[in-house]
Amino acid sequence: MFWQQKRSRSKRAMSIILLFLSLCIVSTAGLSYFITTEHLQAEVEQTNMSLLHEVNDKLLLVLKGIDSETMQFLRSRDMRTFMEDEGADQQDTITINNRIADMLLSNDTIFSIDLYSYAKKRWSQTNPFQTPELGPDYQWMNAFERYKGFYQWIGTRKLSLDDSGNIRQNVMTLIRSYPLVHGEGYRKGAVAFNIDERSIYNLIKNAIDPSLGYLFLADAEGIILSHSDKSLIGKQAGGLLWSKDMTQRDEGQFRTKMNGVNRTAFYMKSPYTGWEIISVVSDAALSKPLVQVRNTLFGISILLLLLAGGMSMVLNSWMFRPVNRVLSNVTKQLQAYGQYERKNEHWADDEWSGIEVSLSYVLADSNRMYRQMRETQPVIKWRLVMDALIGARKNPEELRASLEAIGFPLHAKQYIVLAAEFDQKSSIASSQDLHLYSYALCNVAEEMINAEYRGIAIEARDGLVVIVISFHEAEAEANLLRAFAVAEMIKSYVEEQFKQTISIGLGHIAQEIDTLQYSYHDAMSALSYKMILGGNTIISNDDIREPASGEFMRLLGMTDGIVDSLRLTDSEKMKKQTERWFGEMAGSGAAPDMIRQLVVHFMMKAAKAVGEIDPVMLEEAPPHRLFDLLSQHENIHELSDYVIEQLGQFAKQIEERRSNRERNDVVERITAFINAHYMHSDLSLNYLASEFKLSASHVSRIFKEHKERNFIDYLMDIRMRKAKELLAGSDMLIRDVSEAVGYTNVNSFVRIFKRSTGFIPGEYREREQALLRGADGANDTDVAE
Fold first, then answer.
1. What's residue 314's pLDDT?
2. Angle, alpha carbons 666-672-675 (nearest 5°)
3. Do 551 and 597 form a contact (C-beta atoms < 8 A)?
4. Is the pLDDT of residue 147 over 50?
5. What is the pTM of this model?
6. Contact, 638 vs 533, CB < 8 A?
7. What 8-state DSSP symbol labels residue 666?
8. CA 359 → CA 270, 333, 337, 354, 365, distances in Å?
9. Are 403 and 505 in contact (CB under 8 A)?
């Protein structure tokens, strides 16, 4: 009787203890949940607003950079000549257009640049396919003339890309007044920088995971300026994505419901442009951290309750039953999503057998997790190496430890990056075959490197493999030679076993792994020189020769003769001159990007020459943006062949045009008169009109139609040709030469001569006479022999 009463008291005591522990656990978990939920909710909202601030900072960096370029452009002397100078000639127009072209090439964000002089009623447009008359795309000029401020951001509009207006491009426009600061009514002109909307959207689209939400831009009236769905640009955002509070507050949030899904819209007004940056995030994504906290606390509570129950039962139960229960619960949690059938461990004959079954499940789950880690190893490897190459990770010890954890330990002394790319990738059957070649190259490189050193290789993009070699000794010169030897072995192996060739660029030695990005940049720069040096080669920065100062203008000046041959349709001479020009570029040490820029400038000059013959022929000219097209050619020979082919097409078109054009006796007499009187400083269109009893406009029109160039350019070419003959064949003073060819102002003569030839008159005379003396010496040697 006493024993039963004691046992009953023990049960009641155990029940009270279990109830007390349960209440403590539940109340603690509930209180923690509410406190944590409130804190996480505030953090989630603050994180989304911080995201908008980061997007705004990124936009400000780009847009203010463009604004800075605009103000610098407006302060230039060329801009003052265009906006104010009555005597601005065609050469000044060409100069400012060339400057605009350089700005477009140096900044991919800027789509086009338009100039307008309110004072002189003249304009300049980037797009060569625009008609001479101002169309609806340029109505901003009249509106801005009445604008009180000095600059204005215009929202997205569509800019015509062809004469018909069928092809249009979304642009955002920055307008700046000329001069930068002026009183009311004293505005003389304006410049409009048209920014590609796609470039602006590319800056912000990756700021938020597409699975969680999206970002877009709108103006103060709710008109969408930039969006992933380009069909929505220019339309009203609508009540679901717009709130009246947005006109009263600079930043905030509001709830909305779209397609049956509850969402939260966060907005922020940019103080610089006045545009609204809006992110729309689903409530499910916002509440995801809260759900995770809730589930975690719930799981912890369950575990604590089970633990409390086990503690209460341990006094009256066998020792192994709680152990078995714990192992069973752990197994169920680990294998909740297992793919194989589970047996109940309680079928075992005794407690030890049950424990053995539970442990087997735990070990099976451990093996499965290990296999999953091995399967994801290539992705982790690629991510870690790319982070090091782009400088995303600044802790070298952490990066080395992560690489060592996945099986790629590196030495800690010195590093070097090699960039290996397959030559003639277009000859490989498919992208899948190219990927297999790159995968095999990575394995070969790692095997050869790890034989004596330590390294790692990844495929950075199709056909390009980046190799990192680490050394255990800090001997820069010796390690560089070792890297050369490894590169040579890899190149030879690929040629023998893969029947393919590769080019390898070597970077400089990096002392720390966190400076690996500089070695990677050097390696990629060296690899780009395979366009000049050819494929199947190893290139280091020591093989790259810096071009001389002024080399760009010298090489560009060589194209004048090619353009002259184009006008004369002398295809054979034009081909030889082009081949000689490319040979000069290859031997001058010019970088590949500099060569492509020179070709772009030359093709624009050739297109201008074609347009002078007949504006209709501009439809066959190269596209406005040639740089990306030229980048597709792997070597300089392919680039030369492409240019020669384009010039051949231009020459053929010119010949066809000339064959259909009748000769004009008046033009022939005018031409003969110019050739006989070019030395007269007062020779002009009005002078010719008076001489031949015609109007100046008629003389200009028929001269340009039959001579395929305007009167000023024709007269300038004759005077420059005569000046070259006098400088090379006589010792006349520069002043006398200037007067002999029709220039009374010697400074104007020197400036025009340098623009035409790239040399001042004295330099040209020294070069030509030196060449003549060299030729005479060679002839004397031949006679003596």
1. 60
2. 140
3. no
4. yes
5. 0.40
6. no
7. H
8. 60, 13, 17, 9, 10
9. no
Long-range contacts of 567-576 (CB under 8 A, 24+ apart): 567/609, 567/613, 567/654, 567/708, 567/709, 569/651, 569/654, 569/655, 569/658, 571/647, 571/648, 571/651, 574/644, 574/647, 574/651, 575/644, 575/647, 575/648
Which residues are within 8 A (CB) of 553 and not within 5 positions of it... i.e. 6 or more apart?
758
Sequence letter at residue 375: E
Residue type, 464: L
Radius of gyration of the chain (CA): 38
Task: Give CA separation, 636 vs 421, 502, 539, 587, 631, in Å.
Answer: 17, 17, 16, 12, 10
Burial label, 650 (beta-carbon count in 10 A; 0-12, 13-18, 19+): buried
Dist. CA 448–CA 727, nearest whole Å? 63
Percentage of residues of the chain with pLDDT beyond 90 = 1
355: its two tokens: 């424990």
Nearest-5° angle of CA 505, CA 506, CA 511?
Answer: 150
Q: How far apart are CA 190 and CA 175, in angstroms?
A: 7
User: Quick one: how far is CA 527 from the chain centroid?
Assistant: 18
pLDDT value of residue 345: 45
**Phi, psi dihedral angles at 258 (to 5 degrees):** -130, 130
Torsion over CA: 59, 61, 67, 70 (sign): negative
> Which residues lie closer than 8 Å to 431 by C-beta, 6 or more apart?
462
**Nearest-CA neighbor of 564 among 765, 663, 709, 751?**
709
Pairing of strands 414-422, 454-461: unpaired
3 state DSSP class of 172: strand
Per residue in 169-185, is it b (16+ CB within 10 Å) or e — as a string? bbbbbbbbbbbeeeeee
Q: What does the DSSP assignment read for 67-110?
A: HHHHHHHHTSHHHHHHHH-TT--HHHHHHHHHHHHHHHHH-TTE
| List of E strands, 383-480 | 414-422, 454-461, 464-471
At residue 146, the 3 state secondary structure works out as coil
> The tokens 């030509």 sit on which residue?
768
Amino acid sitting at position 544: I
ω into residue 761 within 30 of 0, thus cis? Answer: no
Q: What is the CA angle 199-202-205, rounded to 5?
A: 150
- pLDDT at 374 > cutoff 70: no
Q: What is the pLDDT of residues 309-343, one digit of tens each?
A: 776 666 555 444 555 565 556 556 555 544 444 45
Residue written as tokens 């030890």?
A: 352
Q: Could you tell me which residues are beta bridge partners of residue 182?
A: none
Residue 22's Cα: distance from chain center in Å? 61
Q: How distant is the alpha carbon of residue 705 from its chain centre?
A: 42
**pLDDT of 620 strictly over 70:** no
Q: Which long-range contacts (CB under 8 A, 24 or more apart) does 206-214 make?
A: 207/51, 207/54, 207/55, 207/58, 207/279, 208/51, 208/279, 208/281, 211/285, 212/281, 212/282, 212/285, 213/263, 213/279, 213/280, 213/281, 213/282, 213/285, 214/279, 214/280
Is residue 510 within 8 A of residue 414, CB to CB? The reply is yes
Count of C-beta atoms within a 10 Å radius of residue 370: 10
| Structure tokens given for 726 | 């006098």
Tell me the one-letter amino acid at 461: R
Taking CA 74 as the corner, what is the angle to CA 69 and CA 75, rounded to the nearest 5 degrees? 100
Which residue pairs from 576-583 have beta carbons closer than 8 angstroms and sit at least 24 positions apart in sequence? 578/640, 578/643, 578/644, 578/647, 579/640, 579/644, 581/555, 582/636, 582/639, 582/640, 582/643
Rounded Cα distance between 7 and 5, Å, is 5
Q: Which residue's structure tokens are 């155990």?
A: 14
Evaluate whether 351 touches 318 at the Cβ level (below 8 Å).
Answer: yes
